[in-house]
Structure formats: C-alpha cells, structure tokens
Design a protein that fits this description.
This is NAD-dependent epimerase/dehydratase family protein. With 313 residues, the protein is an alpha/beta fold. The chain has twelve helices and 14 strands. α5 runs parallel beside α6 and α7 packs across α12. Bound molecules: nicotinamide-adenine-dinucleotide.
Length: 313
C-alpha cells in the first residue's frame, strides 16, 4: 500500500521545503501538508492541504483516519527567540503537539514519527567545541527546555511502547525559499536578503559569535535519509547530533563580501546574544555518520553562492 504522510506546520521554513521534497519523492497527492495558516502560493498549489492545529488531538486523529496516514512529520513549534517572549504558549505548543503525535503512534494509528530537536538542548555547561552526542545538557531557554524534554519523551515512547520515532538536533538552518520563523540563527538568512537589497546589515549578534549552521538542502536530505533508514540502524531514539559548518557573523559577512565587495555589516546585539552564548560553537555528528551514513555537502562558500544566486532571481 502506498504510504500517506502528514506534515504538521508545513508552511514554516522547514515544513515548506520538506513538503516539496516529499512530494517530489512520493507523489503530490500522498503528502498532506497542514498548518494553522496557509502557506505560500507554490506550496498551496502543489498538493493537498488541511488547516489543522497540531495541539488538537481529535482534529489530528480525524485527518489521520481520513487520509490513511502512516507517517507524521511534526514541524509545528514556537522557536527560540519567540518562545522567550511567550514561555507558556511555547511550552504548550511544543509539548502538546509532540504528545499528540506520539500518542497516535502508541495507539498504532500511525507507524512512524519525525520530530525535530535542536542544538538549543545544550547549555552553557556543555562543551562548546565539537559538542558530543552524549554530554551535559542544561538548556537555559524555554525552547531548549521543551526540546530536551521532547527528546526524553521520544526515547521513553520508543522504549516503553515501541514507537518508531526519529529525530535530529538541527543546527541553525539557512534557506531562501521561505523566511525564518523567530529563531536565534535568523540573522544568517536576513543578512543575505539585506546584502542584496541595501548592501548593509545590522546584526543582532556579536561579530565573533560562532554557531553551528546548515544549508536547508542538507537538512532535508538528512531528514529523508534518517526516515528511510532501517529501524535497527537507528540506535538513538532521543535525537541525533547533526553538523555541516560553523561560522560567526563576521565570517558570513566576509563570505558575502567576496561576492559583493561593498557590503557592510554593523553589530547591535540584543536579547538573542545571551541565547546564542549558551549554545555550542560546533557539533560532533559522528554517530549520525556511523548509524545512517550522514555526510554534509554545503559549506559556507557554497551556501553563500546558493543564497545570493537564488535570492537575486
Ligand atoms: N529553522 C531552524 O533553524 C531550526 C533549527 C532547529 C530546530 N528547528 C525545529 O524545526 C521545526 C520547524 O521549524 P521551522 O523553522 O520550520 O519553524 P517555523 O516557525 O518557520 O514554522 C513553524 C510552523 O508551524 C506552524 N504552527 C504554529 N502553531 C501551530 C499549531 N498549533 N498547529 C499547526 N501548525 C502550527 C506555524 O504557522 C509555522 O508555519 C521546529 O520544531 C523547530 O524547533 C528549526
């Protein structure tokens, strides 16, 4: 039987590109996009869409039954910077949507779950260079606490109920098809837009704040690779470290200047600096490489070329 896949939060930065990639791979009509708002025109035109609140279990159950869904990708969440402004809303959305999906799988209404975690699970006591898969995790943000708790619950549902849940700790994701949704690494997207429109950008992080980052194509490829891997190869049921590159605002500015020499950056750090300071500089993703053959393809230079070329079109 052909599998049907439901994407929750499909209109966001990752969900949009994930929907395109899954539709290309499995066929437009087998991938059901859903969100609490409509997405961009090309997403809405590319296949079935449902207005669906991921925190509403009954509505979710109905859609799963109607489309005979076998896999759910849960991309709905409140991101790091926004979550600091609305702590309880973030906690309720991030946790209740996860419980809903895990419980659907526990009740055997779906077979497989993808849920993204984040480098925000780490905190200032975590070794910040080449952060290991298993290490101290004392997140200081609402978002990080929700992701760390989510990881423990995923692991619990796998061990207790045999739920096939798979997860990646995404680094900051860089993409040009949609705008970012309120995270601490959003600067690394805004900077390319500003480089093309005004040739100047004021960064909300300090120039030497190095963070783990990844181009969206790598993130989508990793997600599909993990979801297609044999279950016995998935040794980690909390969430996998994943890495591609690490850079500071000064380094991304340099890389833009190599293509736009009169681009200028200034720095005016805000509350997001404290969040960024608590996160790792770089990530050790050797477990993902060993278990399911992960390897990144985009470095900073290639990312800058892709971003500027596509945004200029
Ligand atoms: N973008 C990144 O750099 C990054 C990094 C690490 C982890 N992640 C994680 O990946 C996932 C997706 O992130 P994103 O960047 O695409 O976020 P985003 O903010 O761009 O998109 C989230 C989407 O969820 C939708 N949504 C909000 N509440 C909802 C609800 N109750 N029901 C259904 N949909 C709802 C929003 O309308 C939005 O379209 C999140 O779990 C996020 O924590 C993202």
């Amino acid at each position: 039987m052909q599998k049907s896949i439901l994407i929750l939060g499909a209109c966001g930065q990752i969900g949009t590109e994930l929907t395109y990639a899954l539709r290309e791979k499995y066929g437009d009509n087998t991938i059901i996009a859903s969100d609490i708002r409509e997405g961009n025109e090309s997403l809405m035109d590319s296949g079935p869409f449902e207005l669906l609140d991921a925190t509403d279990y009954n509505a979710l159950e109905e859609v799963v039954a109607y489309y005979e869904i076998s896999e759910v990708y849960l991309m709905a969440a409140m991101l790091s910077a926004t979550a600091e402004k609305f702590p309880m809303r973030a906690w309720n959305l991030n946790m209740n949507s996860l419980f809903n999906v895990l419980n659907l799988a526990k009740e055997k209404k779906i077979d497989k779950v993808f849920w993204p975690s984040s480098i925000a699970v780490f905190g200032s006591n975590t070794p910040s260079e080449n952060t290991p898969q298993n290490t101290i995790m004392e997140p200081s943000t609402v978002y990080g606490i929700s992701k760390q708790s989510g990881e423990r619950w995923c692991n619990y549902y796998f061990n207790k109920y045999g739920v096939d849940v798979r997860s990646i700790r995404y680094p900051g994701l860089i993409s040009w098809k949609t705008m970012p949704g309120g995270g601490t690494t959003d600067y690394a997207i805004e900077i390319y837009h500003k480089a093309l429109t005004s040739k100047t950008y004021t960064c909300f992080l300090e120039k030497d704040t190095k963070l783990p980052m990844m181009f969206m194509d790598d993130a989508i490829r990793a997600t599909l690779l993990l979801m297609e891997s044999d279950s016995e190869d998935i040794k980690i049921r909390s969430s996998y470290n994943l890495a591609a590159m690490s850079f500071s605002p000064e380094e991304i500015a340099d890389s833009i200047q190599s293509r736009i020499p009169d681009f200028n950056i200034t720095y005016d750090p805000d509350f997001r600096q404290e969040i960024a300071d608590s996160w790792p500089n770089s990530i050790d993703d050797s477990q993902a490489r060993i278990d399911w053959g992960w390897k990144s393809e985009f470095d900073l230079e290639k990312t800058t070329a892709e971003m500027l070329d596509n945004l200029a079109k």
